[in-house]
Design goal:
alpha/beta; three-stranded parallel beta sheet; 3 helices; 41% helix
């Protein structure tokens, strides 16, 4: 699915805990996440730290959307 969407010129970011799966499905832009039960969060952090962590991950994903790549890249 990822390759088909990108074929139409729409960049995709695949956020995943297990990046080898992202690579195997053909994702070109991969952002590693935290853990399987909490991919973009950490319940052990206080509220502000977790919010900062989530914002950082979303910003990283947005940055990789704007980055030209020629091969599979982890950010």
């Amino acid at each position: 699915m990822v390759k088909e969407i990108e074929r139409y010129g729409i960049p995709i970011v695949h956020m995943s805990t297990i990046t080898t799966i992202s690579e195997s499905v053909g994702a070109n832009r991969i952002v590693p996440t935290i853990a399987i039960p909490y991919p973009v969060g950490n319940p052990n952090l206080d509220k502000q730290e977790e919010e900062d962590l989530r914002k950082d991950m979303v910003n990283r994903a947005l940055d990789c959307l704007a980055t030209e790549i020629t091969e599979t890249t982890q950010f």
